[in-house]
Amino acid sequence: MDMNRVKQIVSSPADITVHYHGVSVWIDSYDEQNNTATIHMRGSHEEKREVPVEELEEV
Prior knowledge:
Mean pLDDT: 95
Protein name: Small acid-soluble spore protein H (Minor)
Family: Belongs to the SspH family.
Organism: [Anoxybacillus] calidus
Keywords: Sporulation
Oligomer: single chain
Subcellular location: Spore core
Strand order of the largest sheet: 4-3-2-1-5
Helix content: 10-25%
CATH class: Mainly Beta
Shape: globular
C-alpha cells in the first residue's frame, strides 16, 4: 500500500479491510516522514505497533 491510500483509509468513514501479514488490522495513525503507520489488530486495542506502510494490504 502507499501513503496516499493510508491517508484515505484513515479519513474514511467506511470500514475498509486492511491486512498486515495476513491479519486484519485497524490503522490508527500514520507518519509520512518515516512512511510508517501505527496499527492494532482488530479486536485487540492493547497491542499497537508501528509498521512500514508498504507491508499493509487492502483486501
